[in-house]
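Thread: Newbie trying to understand structure tokens

Hi all, I'm a second-year student working on a class project, and my supervisor (Dr. K.) asked me to get a predicted structure for one chain before our next meeting. I've only ever worked with sequences, so writing a 3D structure as a token string is new to me. If someone could post the tokens and maybe explain what I'm looking at, I'd be very grateful. Here's the chain:
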Amino acid sequence: MNITVIGGGVGCARFVKGVREHAQRSGRDHRIDVVVNTADDWWVSGLRIAPDHDSLLYALAGVNDTVRGWGRDDESERVAAELQVWGTAPEWFTLGDLDLGTHIARTAWLREGLSVSEVYRRLGARWDLGVTLHPATDAEIDTHVLIEGAEPIHFQEWWVRHRAHLPATGFAQRDIADAAPAPGALEAIARADVVLIAPSNPVVSVGPVLAVPGMRDALLAASAPVVGVSGIISGAVVRGMADVCLAAIGLETSAEAVGRHYGARATGGLLDGWLVDTSDAHAVDALAPAGLTARAVPLWMRDADSSARLAADALALAADVALAADAH
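---
Reply by user tm_fold:
Sure, no problem. This is what the structure looks like when written as tokens:
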């Protein structure tokens, strides 16, 4: 089975690990591709930083810091301290020494003229990930946050330095109108037997992927069912500050609201199926008039078992909506 996941960040990394775990336990041949959000990327100290990609890379390689939730395990920060003394790195954005090795390699390859897709391939070849990572686009589409009464700032400054406390009125990806989906991303969607939208931030992780010109069209044209997994449980975000992002675009923090935001593919939206937590079971009937087939299952990914079960539930819903479509 060809499984393609779309998303970014820690929630996506945990979910993809669950998909990989389920695939390994099933004993069947699976190909897993992940189309990764690149709009969180930015330049620091002359280096290209890619937080969403690196969260996935390190987690799948088993070298991530599970306590902080980002970066490499068993890190030191001597270089970051030196960069701050020199005034070339902001004190609120600390990078570990091992992590900096990744950024230096990435930047060196980019300056040699390699595409972001090729850089992904080279970085991923170091470990046996069991998964292939693809950038949503090879273009730079850094997200900037529109601030009430002030100039826009880069998403990372708003997110990390200000902890999303500055009143945002919207989000914009720079030069995204001139971007195109990375070839590997389009191929992963076209060959998929199922497409899964990870429980990632719907505004700044999944949203920029869909905003790349041609990406939404590719999903609408895909023969595979598209199933999403809510990152909202009982009206609260599982991790991060997605609630602030949702509020900035006028959405409440609920699994039902995010499902409506993505919309049903039958009416020009994104999804064929939508998984919500058992605590949000009321959303199943509420979303039916919108054309969404929703199902309530346990969404908490506490360990390998629960993560693998969630992946299995997502694939089961995909199979059911595909059967229903064939019946009609």
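A couple of things are worth pointing out once you decode it. The longest helix spans residues 304-327. Residues 25 and 274 are 24 Å apart (CA to CA). Feel free to ask follow-ups in this thread.
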